[in-house]
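Lecture notes, part 5. Sequence design as translation. It can be helpful to think of inverse folding as translation between two languages: the language of shapes and the language of residues. The source text, in structure tokens, appears below.
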């Protein structure tokens, strides 16, 4: 996480102790990004299933 934010791990630890609101925003931002990725993957899988069903109905 520190590398992605271009800060040291010590900076992250300090933010966690001294700036908990900032640290919470960062953690929630990473969680949000991961949720968006998962949602996109699920949407892609559903589209693929839909295409498979459409193909099978045509035959």
């Amino acid at each position: 996480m520190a590398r992605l934010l271009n800060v040291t791990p010590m900076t992250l630890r300090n933010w966690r102790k001294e700036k908990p609101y900032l640290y919470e925003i960062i953690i929630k931002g990473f969680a949000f990004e991961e949720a968006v990725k998962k949602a996109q993957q699920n949407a892609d899988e559903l589209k693929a299933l839909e295409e498979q069903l459409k193909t099978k109905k045509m035959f």
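The translated text above is only one of many valid answers, since several sequences can fold into similar shapes. The helical segments are 2-5, 9-18, 20-58.
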